[in-house]
Automatic annotation (TrEMBL):
GO MF terms, alphabetically ordered: S-adenosylmethionine-dependent methyltransferase activity
Organism encoding this protein: Methylocystis bryophila
Keyword field contains Methyltransferase: yes
UniProt keyword terms in alphabetical order: Methyltransferase, Transferase
The protein's name in its UniProt record: SAM-dependent methyltransferase
Residue ranges annotated for the Methyltransferase type domain, each copy included: 59-154
Cited CDD domains: AdoMet_MTases (cd02440)
Keyword DNA repair: no
One of the GO BP terms on file: methylation
Taxonomic lineage: Bacteria, Pseudomonadati, Pseudomonadota, Alphaproteobacteria, Hyphomicrobiales
Superkingdom as given in the UniProt entry: Bacteria
Amino acid sequence: MSAFPQSQRQAEQRPGDDYNVETAYARWAPMYDFIFAKWLEPGRRAAAAAASGTDGPILDVGVGTGLELPLFSPAASVVGVDLSEPMLHLAKRRVRRKRLAQVEGLACMDACRLGFKDSSFGCAALMYVLSVTPEPAAILNEVARVVRPGGEIISIGRISPELPALAALEIWVGRRFGSQIGWRPHFPWKVFDDWLKSRADMRLVERRRIAPLGLFTLVRIQRIP
Ligand SMILES: C[S@@+](CC[C@H](N)C(=O)[O-])C[C@H]1O[C@@H](n2cnc3c(N)ncnc32)[C@H](O)[C@@H]1O
């Protein structure tokens, strides 16, 4: 059961955040790989390499169509979860087609209410997920629960530059088009910063810009042993 009551999830939401992730990704699923495979790949590679370097097993949160699954080490043990059945259907097809032995299982699950026991994983990978969800802190709290002490949370995604005019534009676009596009264009570092300040048991290990053009940021957080 999630440690995060619905009221806390709602408290995290802001105007424009009331979109439904499942509806948005049911729409994206048929064209997702065509649009997002290539230019998000360097980030997936970096996150998969970092995750494969941990002791594992790896929980891939928001696995989507499974584009990152072949990028984990063949020696890894990976469980993928996603809220969207149509995205997950494509991930399952990819695992079968490519015979990805490192994938132990794929399940439809809300990352805010993971059905795993505490400390079940050595690593949780979040690839382009936190800016999609209206409740990033609730997801971080829940993945922190299932990662064991000494394990890591590894995230790749876009962090908004600290430019007030750009922030205002991103917030406007999010409010106006958030429900259609299914993500928040405005994702400031403050989301991680506030969360880290609220968690004495977690520490930032790495924050690194990734191609293309340093547009995305790899963040590694360790649950303090
Ligand atoms: C932008 S896609 C990224 C997919 C994949 N990781 C990749 O790199 O292409 C974000 C995915 O996160 C999933 N997602 C969003 N919120 C979620 C939640 N609360 N629980 C589980 N999955 C979620 C969406 O359904 C979608 O498949």
